[in-house]
Write the structure tokens for this entry.
Amino acid sequence: MTDSKYFTTTKKGEIFELKAELNSDKKEKKKEAVKKVIASMTVGKDVSALFPDVVNCMQTDNLELKKLVYLYLMNYAKSQPDMAIMAVNTFVKDCEDPNPLIRALAVRTMGCIRVDKITEYLCEPLRKCLKDEDPYVRKTAAVCVAKLHDINAQLVEDQGFLDTLKDLISDSNPMVVANAVAALSEIAESHPSSNLLDLNPQSINKLLTALNECTEWGQIFILDCLANYMPKDDREAQSICERVTPRLSHANSAVVLSAVKVLMKFMEMLSKDLDYYGTLLKKLAPPLVTLLSAEPELQYVALRNINLIVQKRPEILKHEMKVFFVKYNDPIYVKLEKLDIMIRLASQANIAQVLAELKEYATEVDVDFVRKAVRAIGRCAIKVEQSAERCVSTLLDLIQTKVNYVVQEAIVVIKDIFRKYPNKYESVIATLCENLDSLDEPEARAAMIWIVGEYAERIDNADELLESFLEGFHDESTQVQLQLLTAIVKLFLKKPTETQELVQQVLSLATQDSDNPDLRDRGYIYWRLLSTDPVAAKEVVLAEKPLISEETDLIEPTLLDELICYIGTLASVYHKPPSAFVEGSRGVVHKSLPPRTGSSESAESPDAAPSAGQAAEQPAVIPAQGDLLGDLLNLDLGPPVSGPPLAASSVQMGAVDLLGGGLDSLMGDESEGLRSDVGGSPAMGGSGFTAPGPAAPAAMGAPLGSGLGDLFDLTGGVGTLSGSYVAPKTVWLPAMKAKGLEISGTFSRQVGSICMDLVLTNKALQVMSDFAIQFNRNSFGLAPAAPLQVHAPLAPNQSVEISLPLNTVGSVMKMDPLNNLQVAVKNNIDVFYFSTLYPLHILFVEDGKMERQMFLATWKDIPNENEAQFQIKDCSLNADAVSSKLQGSNIFTIAKRNVEGQDMLYQSLKLTNGIWVLAELRIQPSNPSFTLSLKCRAPEVSQYVYQAYDAILKN
Amino acid sequence: MISQLFILSSKGDRLVYRNFRGDGGDDVTDAFYRAVTSLPGDQAPVFMAREGQHFVHVRHGGLYVGATTTADTSPFVLVEFLNRLVTLLREHCGTLSEKSVSVNVALVQELLGEMVDFGYVQTTATEVLRSATHGEPETTKAFSLLDLRSVGLFGAETQQSRVAPGSVTNRPVLPPRGEQGGRREVFVDVVERLTVVIAANGTPLKVDVQGEIRLKSFVPGACELRMGLTEELSVGTEEQCGYGRLPLAAVAFHSSVDLEEFEQERVLRVTPGPGEVTLMRYQLAEDVAVPLPFRLLPSVEWEPAGRLRIHLKLRCDLPPKNHAINVVLQLPLPREASSLAQELSSPEQTAELQGGGRSLRWAIPRCQGGAQLGAVFRVQLPPTPPLGLGPAALTFELPALTVSGLRLRWLRLSAPPGAPPGPPQRWVRHLTHSDSYVVRL
């Protein structure tokens, strides 16, 4: 750049020279001098010493010169605020200039000078310019309000600029409207609660009109603003969609994507049966496909967005597989994204084509791409069952190439295929074993060791193979060490006679010579298991593993819904919500998709359920009349019958808790181990931006749990399963209202049976006897499973504790509130009535653990409007503690993930009447408030499930 | 919104820098350059994050044209804007090079001031900018060998092309003010990109044709332009397409194009100001049988001791009056080859090993339609088991030809009143180039 005439070194002499030229009388010379100054400034040289001289050139009719001087001012005013004041007069004068270009230039520049003293002078000119007759000035002034707000928000509010800005939304010039929308949107972001962008059908209509007329960039401001609007019903949503659709064929991809965002969002509100819905789906495909012929940078951004869109609505692009085939000259970042989308779109219909492509890719030159292609083949096998066989044979072909990294990737994915289709493809193990020596990456070594251990009985020399790994045990990575330990233990359990020495060797290596606590702990557990009860050990170590599914690499449904709201923004590139990467308050407002309307379902939302009148009388004692109680009065209160002995009502909670904790940590460890088993699942190969960690496997099923239970039965002799949480007893029926009989009680659930734990106290002066109890019909059919047994008459001032077993086979009637239970108790004196609320968790059954795939499918399947969100406040437990605590009450954690420092627990529970409730619990380490999202086909139970969560977690 | 904007030379020197929102330090350009150059390979990610700032950049003519943002901005806006900026700089400075940018810093700054306000893109339309700016471009006469990349068709991002009047389009669109002179010219390019994958058995797996009609006008003031396209054109896939029709799957027009006569007569009408604009983008329907320009008939023999004998026969299936230029065949080899022996059918062809022996490059400067070229290569590879070879990738340009058959039948210009006498020069150019032409072996 030294050959350019403006670029000479800033020696002292040069500044002087420039100074002289700036003060020259000749206009042309002056202008050339200012240009030189600007050129120096642009490349980062300090020319601030010329400040007064440049400002002197400000008063000129030459617009070009004026612009250059203003540019200089913007750059240096902040470092020389006192000198900048010198320019104020000229600014103010220029704001009155007859030439609109000069007026706009002055107000634009003033807004960019972030000096308080100048800002004060800006208000008056700005007020005038906002009402200027020339649209060019008005549009510049509109942006200037945003500038001023960034410097001094209070000033903008005090001066009433916001109202003027709002008026500009109705301006006749579309560019002014667009800039006003942009400015208001920016200001509104820093005041999330304010109602600045008061969008209503009228203003939306204005925006839509302006949309057709303004520049492409203005269209983007307006579309992005529309995306934040919540139409009142599906008809409005449809009419907006209709008017936005033409933008899809715009040449500017930013316009297209902003339009796609609006459509994707409002589509949520349209009924799927609508013809228009189908039309809209069809219209979305071509613009997305067209984006793939743009420049590679745009293609990349488009692919990241398409990745989200195909996860949300795969139907849009299901026929467009071919456009995602990789071109040899695509940049690597485009290639990797395309591969990802190919897998997402893979289905039985197109799998042959996809596999043929992937096989080609696997022979290309680029190592990263080849690796991902090999993984993709494995993901195909897992996703499309019919293709599994072909995938496996393709992988075997690739292994034959002996290209080191191809072989390693292939082995990692074959392990996943074994997990998905057990006992189907084990015939290939021999081929895999041939490549044992060439594996040098931990993941591949671990995968191979897992395979050897898992199928030890079919591999004749399994012990030799594993022994060969054992030699360099301490040089291996933790992943491999853990895998080796487990594999050798498996081998021992399968072939105990020949491998005793080997297992002892590995156990001592792991427990005595290793510094790694994970490894040591796992070693100790195996050791203890094996020495105490090999049969139990077998049940634990060789327990059946849950199947894996391709869903592991999908984005969380809730995160996906949030990201869909951010289509066409940076969030869609990073696949993270803006709160994760935008600093400050901007953009942290969570967005969510609108609920689908237009059906009667919404009327059944949980809020609408309780009607006011009934809700008021919740826990009160029932008045002693009413038809409802008719059948209660006709009680057949026979004499006490001795039933089966009842379970002891008091559980040694302390002991159980201790044991429970121990068990949990054991299980936690084991599931860690298994996690690395599953580790190689396709998600691992994900791109750099989103690496959803490998989810904990759908944990240890029932067999393992009982295995451990047995084990502890044998060793410790304490064989109690922890029961669910039991609330302290409360008074249900005060003595005053029941002629001296006081009843307090609570509900509990143990080992699958529900109990009502009662304390009857005689506060009267006479002896009570002939007790009997009956329930009115209730929501879940709760009924006493045995008569109320009070063996001896109750003397005055005496209490008796009774545990009444309940079942859920009684007649059902929906109560309000849902968990209300009306009870009648009779004694020799009278019949008394009371009602109580039972905690819902006594209805959570023991087999409420949903299969992982089931869970994901169900979660997706339940419509969004059935989702309810609650806050659990002031709970300081960590995720593991929460999970174990809830497990005690039959709320089962299916998966745990860590997303940006937050723990997400995915849980399921089942009610006695077969209703499934799915939950997502979000725990932030620093925040004592948890967020609980519940999804259920019967949304009216959500509120009570939440109460149960709250009660369990806080006790 | 855009926080900062910068143009850096290939060495990282700051040529243009502008801070629109007053946030972020002035050291961003250094930070950016460090981030870009510290990455392995030359395919830096489009987006990079650093301390709450997000960089986005595109590369043109060796320059880094980049922007930063701190908010959750539309990445499409950022990339589109940068691309648009590059086009505009070409229009105003002639070529985009380190030199032309540094000479025109004042003009570039003035343009940026009009294009972006507080990070919000205001306009990128040439005519609007023309009326709002006052600086004059300084042209650079530089024609160094390094600038060869930018010679040729403006519509096609190809290596070189000697098809069109060369560097005529590499001058500022706007003649200096006050001068009525300058050559009044209009260029219309129909450029098609061909993406083809041919299976090992010779059947085409995928044939994808994307095209653009681009217009670059050097005529000051507005003049109405009408152009007639091939009449056989039909849009949309549902439509019944008879024999000889030319169905397009998707078409997008620039917003300035008047389509009144398009439905009936396939006429586009547009009144362009000076500058460059893409009038129409189209994609050929998938089921159309496009004649493929090249067939490759390979035969590979493994000789003992890791020697590989590759016999390639390349047939050019173009009509005899057409020809292809700059044909390059790239063949990846399974292992690093240590030596190459070649027999080529004509002296102007060349062949060499590239990428440390990982691929074979066979270059043919010119190939007439109907010709058949043969080549025999012997490559020495390290001892390995027989592995797959390829796929072979071809790049080429087909001047004066559109594979789809879409052509401009005629182009009429009606000058506005008061224009100097004599019609402006009109240039219509057709070109097809290979985007990705892959033959599997």
About this structure: Chain B has six helices and 24 strands.
